[in-house]
Amino acid sequence: MTVRRIHDWIAKGLLDQPRLRTRRRGSHKAEHSATQRQLLLLLLDKRQQVQHLSSLAQVPLAMWLWWDGYVPTRQAQRAWRTWVGRGRRSQEVAREGALGLLEQAGYQLATPTARARFVRIITELGNGKALTVRGRAELLDAVRDVMEPDTVFAASGLVRALGPAQTPMTVETVMGYVEALSIALGRTLDGKVEAVMLERARAVHRASMTDYLADRGTLAAEAGQLADLFREPTLQVQFDQAGRQLLLVLGMQLIHHRAQ
């Protein structure tokens, strides 16, 4: 570690600003808190496991999301912007998310063309492309083509619903999910996500996760082919999913406030 790297990590939200220590004449060197020093050790360990530095931002972000007293909101704000990021890493994360969603929702008889279109559109949205009225119509067609291909569902008039009965995954559910991610992503890239918005999203996420963990066993038993989505999350999984979960909750809140 060098002084320059410490300053760089502070600017990216990986670390918080050190505390100033005053004395009668002049001042002592600034000092990081014990929790921030522990965070630095964790970051150094995780640095060997990630390819992009922006991926490290999910460490302080997850700590802020789940535990009080370790990471202040001002640091979480910087870490949030770093994690969202831009460029090649953002493109890779967006495509990975699109492929994961396709694996969950795609019907086995959906054509390769429909699958490729689905991944392309959602990758573009996940990389910061704005969701226009025309783009939303195209997204809806793409989701329907992979979830309810005409060769199977057009004649029957059936609607496909995956997972447990109380929280089924339908075309409308996937649309809402993608739209929420797109709106939250655009707001972040525009620099318009204030601290109070993040804190509100954190509170909502904590409350919803408490309810989810209480019902997780029942949901897993009723989920059928999506049962793996409801397995008990490990600490590593909670760290890995912190950013995407916060992005979704933030987007849902923005949609709700826009509708009011």
Task: Report the helical percentage.
Answer: 55-70%
Helix/sheet category? mainly alpha
Could you give the order of the helices and strands?
HEEHHHHHHHHHHH
**Whole-number average pLDDT?**
85
How can the largest sheet be summarized? 2 strands, antiparallel
Tell me the distance between the termini.
49 Å
Number of E strands: 2
The Cα radius of gyration reads 21 Å
Count of DSSP H/I helices:
12
**Overall 3D shape:** elongated
Low-confidence regions: none
Q: How much of the residues is beta strand, in percent? A: under 5%
| Spatial strand sequence of the major β-sheet | 1-2
Key descriptive features of the protein:
single chain; mainly alpha; elongated
Q: Can you give a write-up of this model?
A:
- It is elongated and about 85 Å long.
- It has twelve helices and two strands, in the order αββααααααααααα.
- It has helices at residues 3-11, 34-47, 53-56, 58-66, 73-84, 88-105, 112-126, 133-147, 150-153, 171-189, 195-222, 235-259, and strands spanning 19-22, 27-31.
- A two-stranded antiparallel ribbon has the order 1-2.
- The longest helix is centred in the C-terminal third of the chain and has 28 residues, at 195-222.
- A hairpin with a 4-residue loop joins β1 (19-22) and β2.
- It has 260 residues and is mostly helical.
Secondary-structure topology with pairs:
Elements: H1 3-11, E1 19-22, E2 27-31, H2 34-47, H3 53-56, H4 58-66, H5 73-84, H6 88-105, H7 112-126, H8 133-147, H9 150-153, H10 171-189, H11 195-222, H12 235-259
Antiparallel strand pairs: 1-2
Helix pairs in contact: 4-5, 4-12, 6-7, 7-8, 8-10, 10-12, 11-12
